[in-house]
Amino acid sequence: MGGGDPGEAIGISQEKLILCRRLRLRPLPPDRFFRRGTNSWLHDRRGGRAVARTRWERLIRTPQQPREITFVELFFDLAIIFALMQLSRRFLRDFGWENSLQTLLLLAAVWWIWVGAARTTDWLDPNQRFTQGIVIGMMFAGLVAAASVPEAFGEHSVVFAAANVAAHLVRHLSIIAALHGHPVGARSMRAAIWFASTAPLWIVGAFLPTTPQLVLWSVAIILDYAGVGVGWRVPRLEPLPEEHLRVRGDHIAERHRQVFIIAVGEVILTSGIALSRAGLDGVRIGAFVLAFAIAGLIARAFFLPRGLALQEAVDRRPSTVSVRASYLHLIMILGTVLTAMGAEILISQPLGEARAEWSAAILAGPLIFLGGRALYALRVFQRRPWRAPTGMLLLLAISPAMVRLPPLAVAGTVAVVLLGIVFSYGRIGADPPRAETPLAQLLQKRENPRQLSAYELFFDLAMIFALTQVSQRLLADLSLGNVAESMVLLAAVYWVWVATAWSTDWYNPDDPRLQRLIIVVMLAGLLMAAAVPTAFGEHGLLFAGAYAGTHLVRGLVIVPALRGSPLQARSLRVVIWFGISAVLWLVGAFLPASDRLFLWAAAIVVDGVSAWFGWPVPGLRAPQSHLRVIGEHIAERYRQVYIIALGALVLISGRAYSSAGFDDFRTLAFALAFTSAALMLWSYFLPSGRDLGTVVNSTAPKVAVAAGYCHGIMIAGTVVVAASAEVYIRSPIGPVNAAWTLLIVGGVALHMVGRTLFGLVMYGARHPWRGPLAVLVLAAITPGLLMAPPLVVAVPVVFVAFLLTVLYARSPVR
């Protein structure tokens, strides 16, 4: 025994012995093992007692955990959309150097909050309540900081500084308290010292005039960025080993991919809002299509050439590579923020006068993105880029001539340069594995159904704009007629998403034909969303044409591609039924509003009921197996769109809070709105242990359709909640309005109904009494709330939602 490994003497594997040494724990002999789990062999050296599973084990993210982004991380990213929109508008407000430097500094601070959250979920298990609490807290701090962006160098400087400092310090102090003595705790200790040293600069700077404030905050942000770059070295403390500074390449690469898609989505969102406000004439629609093309080309350039994987660079090279990637992503995201600013100018003034600052604003975004992309390839992947620098030189060379052109011409020139860069990559990089025939390629199944493609994630961002539009339309007029119209429009927008999600489930999302189809459907969906405010007025034909066109074009592309496959009958049946409903949509577009509502509601019923019965057509038979979807994929898609709906709530609440003011009542109202979103997110995943993917895989195809119906009701509830949140944030103690009270109560009640049906239909809940009881409680208290101001109404309503969520958390799972 003398020359062997000491672990062999007590029967412990080499892997467990190594983990014991890392955690500085003493392994237990076999006769003292607990039998309550596979990780029960650790021994607490401080308490001298055996434990079934230590707190450290529960909190630390293990290498075996999948890299898929968890729901709390997706939820956090919604704050970034709002922050980027705020920063883009701040850039647009003043093109001067001082405002530009201030906004750049604010962007760097917001970005570092995101980096901190991404690293937290890389170190800690994001499925643990402790980690989720940290991320949710950072999200709230980030939203407050984003809301204060317009006046961060004015009356709201203290708010921004306090939110920024709290986001970092509270995170690290919480980790220190929970993981004291663990390497992760030691790392957070050093990081907390760095952030604590810069906190006085942020707080003191908030009370100074603008110029000294800019100087102090610039020093603070430089130190914040430098801390992670030097491994948070602290005098008299032993430097952290290299392995304690590393992050997981697969997880951090996925997080960076996700946030960049979100940043490009912010360009789309800003463009859609600008189009809706400016008007839907032909020139502005053309400008919007051009802005959409520029955003798409930037996204495409980010992922080229094929084979450039951040995961491999992070895993194989020193830990500083991941830090460089975070620095350089900031430059590229700055480019997208400026591109969004240029898109707003382009759409609002497509043929306006030639102005140097407008031309510079349109050119600046793509120029800075290309610069960041070149540095990214050089410093992270050690490649010598020439395409991005060439594009930069071309843009700089033509910029003097651009000052004499209107925004539409400038943007067209930018699009041509970006298109040339994308095409110049050609076949560089290894082609993804392809099937032998085009048909086999279209039907090829993805290796990991839970991992969504970049095109699917990009498509989902259009839903935020659409849901925001419906919520704003609903709030503009609370009459029964407008509520009914808004719900029909919401159903149409949602059904476009459902049909697209099913398409990417049945067919290969990596097939170029399907990718192009997703982009076309996304563009049509954005035009639908832009037409929402006047869909029952002058732009009814645009809305109906876009809706019918998406479904018919999808069928005209897919059906010929399936020639020779028995699955062609399925797609042909689908397109026939969408053709029937298209008649109702298009005819209704030419009728008065009341008749239009009737026909469009009938069309929605046709589309929904035909899906339930499998789109039956005489003479075209399709077995039940052809109507099945992949449970893991469709569950992930439904989860994603639900979180996107909550994103609309977060976005609307943040905009209302930012524009209405920061007094105590409005701050409480904003906190209530955020709590509502968090509770709706939490309740969706309760009780734990349920898996929608397993249910879909093990039941009839109709169950997946039923899941679509239930999610539609819950999303309708979030849209109404978003409208009500704007009410009580803007007028927390404003005038008493019975319609407002019904809106606040009705949104939460509608969501509860959808959530109850979801549990009943999907999981066969035996006694679904919790949701109905909560709805009855809301109905009982509503008469007493009719004469109360909006904030007073919101408090008990949110409290009832909280109690319902607690009941869901404690309910058993069969």
Low-pLDDT sequence parts: 1-53
User: What best-fitting shape do the alpha-carbon axes yield?
Assistant: globular
Main sheet makeup: 2 strands, antiparallel
Total strands: the figure is 2
Q: Mean of the pLDDT scores?
A: 86
CATH class of the largest domain: Mainly Alpha
Rg for CA atoms: 27 Å
* CATH fold-level assignment of the largest domain: I/LWEQ domain
Strand content: under 5%
Report the total helices: 30
First-last Cα distance:
50 Å
Helix content: over 70%
Strand adjacency order, main sheet? 1-2
Structural class by SSE content: mainly alpha
Question: If classified by CATH, what would the architecture of the largest domain be?
Answer: Up-down Bundle
Transmembrane segments: 69-88, 100-118, 130-150, 156-179, 285-304, 325-346, 358-378, 408-426, 483-502, 514-536, 542-562, 574-591, 597-620, 641-662, 668-686, 706-725, 737-757, 769-786, 792-809
Keywords: Membrane, Transmembrane, Transmembrane helix
InterPro entries: Low_temperature_requirement_A
Protein name: Low temperature requirement protein A
Structural key phrases:
814 residues, 30 helices, 5 domains, I/LWEQ domain, mainly alpha, 2 strands
Description of the molecule:
With 814 residues, the protein is mainly α. The chain folds into five domains: 6-53, no CATH class; 71-241, no CATH class; 249-424, Up-down Bundle (I/LWEQ domain); 485-627; 631-810, I/LWEQ domain, CATH 1.20.1410. 72% of the residues lie in helices and 0% in strands. The protein is built from 30 helices and two strands. It has helices at 6-9, 14-23, 55-59, 71-93, 97-123, 129-147, 157-178, 183-205, 210-229, 249-278, 282-302, 310-316, 320-348, 356-379, 387-402, 407-424, 438-443, 454-476, 480-506, 512-531, 540-561, 568-588, 593-612, 631-660, 664-684, 692-698, 702-730, 738-763, 770-785, 790-810, and strands at 43-44, 49-50. It has a two-stranded antiparallel sheet with strand order 1-2. It is globular. It starts with 5 loop residues before the first helix and ends with a helix. Residues 1-53 have low confidence and may be disordered. Keywords: Membrane, Transmembrane, Transmembrane helix. This is Low temperature requirement protein A.
